[in-house]
Amino acid sequence: MSQTVNVERPSTLQGARLPKWAPLAVAAGSIALGLGISAAAGLDSSIQWALLAAIFFVLASYGIAARVEGRRQAKDRVATSLVWVAFLLAVIPLVSLMWETVERGVKVLDGYFLSHSMGLVTDTEPGGGIYHAILGTLEQVGIATLISVPIGILTAIYLVEYGRGRLAQAVTFFVDVMTGIPSIVAGLFVLSFWILILDMGPSGFAGAMALTILMLPVIVRSTEEMLKLVPNELREASLALGVPKWRTIMKVVLPTSIGGITTGVMLAIARITGETAPVLLLVWGSTFINTDPFDGPQASLPMYIYQQYANSGGSGAAYDRAWAAALTLIAFVMILNLAARGIARWKAPKTGR
Amino acid sequence: MAKRIDISGLSAYYSSFRAIEDISMAIEPRSVTAFIGPSGCGKSTFLRTLNRMHEVTPGGRVEGKVMLGDENLYGAGVDPVAVRREVGMVFQRPNPFPTMSVYDNVAAGLRLNGSYKKSELDGIVEKSLKGANLWNEVKDRLNKPGSGLSGGQQQRLCIARAIAVEPNVLLMDEPCSALDPISTLAIEDLISELKERFTIVIVTHNMQQAARVSDRTAFFNLSAVGQPGKLIEIDDTERIFSNPSVQATEDYISGRFG
Amino acid sequence: MDISTKKSDAPPSSPLPADLSAAEQKRAARGATRPGDRVFLGLSRGSGIFLLVIMAAIAVFLTYRSVIAISKNESNFLTTFEWNPTAAEPSFGIAVLAYGTVVSSIIAMVIAVPIAVGIALFITHYAPRRLGGAISFVIDLLAAVPSIVYGLWGALVLAPHLVGLYGWLDDYFGWTGILEWQGGAPRSLFTVGILLAIMILPIITSVSREVFRQAPQMHQEAALALGATRWEVIRMSVIPFGRSGVISASMLGLGRALGETMAVATVLSPNFKIEASLLDPNGGTFAQNIASKFSEASEMGRDALIASGLVLFIITLLVNGAARAIIARRAEYSGANA
Which fold has domain B5-93+169-253? Predict the structure, then answer.
């Protein structure tokens, strides 16, 4: 016990504590100081004063806490401050992203915009719409979904219900690999064999093939997870009644997990709807309505955004259209996401938890 | 080192649910006090109010007074971190830090509370491990991970970790329930030695254990599921087990319920 | 196969549950004699095989076209600083692209990882529970925002706001050369790095959050009971537990940053050379180069782009593989401790 002499151990349990409002006061002070310095030095970017304020906040938290509460508490306060600063630093751009998209997007977003194509409207003049792009996106995503959902679900069934051997291991491994393929590489692959080797022209279908490659692993993974959640007792109960395995899977396993599988499919659709790069390489884009996904270039919503941005030469009308299309795309993706989460919650398999 | 604990009018809540109601008792220094009672009667919750660990649980809240010596743990301006330095705790499942060596586990609390020279630290670690009757078993592998020890050794390591910071009080929450009988015996022997230096409070489900190690025993009960737990009586262990003053205590001890 | 043989080696004392997988296999084999079962098994196995065929095809076709391109290349594919695949004497190399891809991804990681870890800790250990739940929900949604929208925002909102910061960096750190700025539009690798950081923040945050949430309560309580402050609890018991998870989350984020196309193509004004300054337009990235050079490229030009795409593919494979290896090792580690 005599060894513990150098521990500064207060005889009392009461440590000096900063009042509850101290962090808020320090934050307010830091922001004021950041703004003040910015005004004095004529800094015009909000990023600068925010960074200054953040630095002041962390330093002041440490300094004040170290004086009043001691070094350990000060460290704790700094960690807390840093965590808050990290949170705010992240929230600001993300809120700005949503805000700007909505604010700038609503300008030209109306019924006309949604129901007309660009047609002969040149990039720099106002007017036109995204009907052709929505159509193209729906067709391309629809085809990709039609191909990848059955294949993806069957692959997952194989992995969970049958797969024990080398083949299953290989499939599992390559599904992982496929998950990491950059979308542009998927586009290049379809380009290399469909357009360069088979000499086909650009079409919605070519884009859909690339989207399939991006969508398949997502569906396999999520379906696999859902099938694994189905309790073995259910399968055994059905098999014990003499129901053949394939009917057990169709009538017992799949219905039990259908909610989760649907969620996974919807999230996968949401993901590929926003893909631009492969569509750019394979579908090329068009200002006209092309309803045939198997013949000729088509438009697509994400590509429309890019082209309005890139080909407009800085024209306000094109930027407005780009923002409006971005808002439409985000709305579509968010609705899919929210619906998917809703279904997941609603149909969550009742397995104990 | 050891201090007396005086509890008065203590209630603990999980959000709006009151888990224990209006408990008052005194816990004597340099002795072992055992808490017994059926599952869900709030004895672990009560134990956790004694080092302000209860409020760590989301929604956890405490009313009442806990005097450690002459200070109220729940008084205004009291720092829970300082409280936990004075009141050590050993948990149901051994929980040495898995990424730390045996040595670092014992030194963990010391390193938080101040800076030590290597030689001082060595001395305290050795003394604490000896105090936990673990030194001879681990002295050759102080730098191996603590998670490599057996369950009983891990639990004694946790005790060593707790006593290394020289707390006033040692709380033990069913410290033997995850251990085999031989390890349990080792821990019980250790408790009898430690009470020379610390005020010890132990929650146990095992009545023989309470009878073997404790000087005083408190019996907790609840009138029905969903009702708060209450202190039924506290008395010398010998009396509780031979001639309790409340019928419910006798029923519980003789195995009629619980 | 290994698994089932191992299991059937188990002592036959409890015959039924012990070799469940063997029993299931037998049942599957018996079942497969039924026509319905045979068709179903065939279909599902066929789907798995189809997936393998696609992967093989990707590798074969990309390699094939790349070999064509590289064989016609008059200069070294790895070290050349120019991209002229359509010239009479084709000459192109990935040095600039590799530089730009790596530099922008490093900037993104340096910014995103600490912030993501901070937010993850904020959600699991600092914020009130309701707020934490709401924030995780929003972060998950943000992960779904299409990259082209990030690109649009980056080019039209973020870049103009960075002018002031650029001036600052040039004023105080311009002497380093790395942060020197000529005063052009802030559409450099640095801006790309910031934008990529914002884009990969949600994925790193949500994986780290899950890991931190799983940090064992009992170790956190052990630290608390020793009189640790909240930060000390995190340092002693949460971060050691979550370290490998954070690393693999970061690798996943890195994989995305490396392959990101549209956001980079929208924001970066490419300049096919390597210079010290991160703030002046220098370099390009693999994906951005493909997207922006593609439309005017001839067949040879496309083959050259495919070759660069193959390199990108291999790099992302390695990064993702590393992430998975870390995850797998962690699974073993926690399994042994359970």
Answer: Rossmann fold (3.40.50)
Are A83 and C27 in contact (CB < 8 Å)?
Answer: no
Q: d(Cα A235, Cα A241) in Å, to the nearest integer?
A: 10
Is residue C78 domain-resident?
no
pTM of the model: 0.87
Distance (Å) from the C-alpha of residue B94 to the closest C-alpha of chain C?
9
* Domain limits for position A26: 17-104
- A107 in reach of chain C (CB within 8 A): no
Cross-chain Cβ contact B51/C222 below 8 Å:
no
Q: What is the pLDDT along chain B (258 residues), one digit of tens a residue?
A: 578 899 999 999 998 899 999 999 999 999 999 999 998 888 999 999 999 999 888 888 999 999 998 889 998 888 888 899 889 999 999 999 988 899 999 999 888 877 788 899 999 999 999 988 899 999 999 999 888 899 899 999 999 999 998 898 999 999 998 888 888 998 999 999 999 999 999 999 888 899 999 999 999 998 888 889 999 999 999 999 998 999 999 999 888 776
- A72–B112 C-beta distance less than 8 A: yes
- For residue C321, is pLDDT > 90? no
Nearest CA in chain A to B86: A13
Q: How far is it, in rounded angstroms, from Cα A343 to Cα A125?
A: 43
Q: Does residue C50 lie within any of the structural domains?
A: no
Among candidates A185, A197, A310 on the partner chain, residue whose Cβ is nearest the Cβ of C313 = A185
CA separation for the pair C242, C311 (Å, rounded)? 32
d(CA B25, CA B10): 10
Q: Say whether both A146 and A283 belong to one domain.
A: yes
pLDDT digits (tens, 9 = 90+) for B123-151: 999 999 998 889 999 999 999 988 889 98
| Size (chain C), residues | 338
What ipTM was assigned to the predicted interfaces of this complex? 0.88
Give the Cα separation of C134 and C123 in Å (integer). Answer: 9
Residues of A in contact with B71 (CB under 8 A): 12-14
Q: At C14, is the pLDDT very low, low, confident or very high (cuts 50, 70, 90)?
A: very low
The number of distinct structural domains making up chain A is 2
> What string of DSSP letters covers C98-112?
HHHHHHHHHHHHHHH
| Residue closest to A266 by CA, chosen among A157, A347, A172, A351 | A347
**Residue C159: count of CB within 10 angstroms of its CB:** 23
Task: Judge whether residue C2 has pLDDT over 60.
Answer: no
pLDDT tens digit sequence for C57-90: 999 999 999 999 999 988 889 988 888 888 888 8
Helix (H) or strand (E) holding A49: helix A46-68
- DSSP label of B169: E
Supply the range of the domain harboring residue C18.
1-31
* Structure tokens, A259: 């909610």
What type of residue is B162?
A
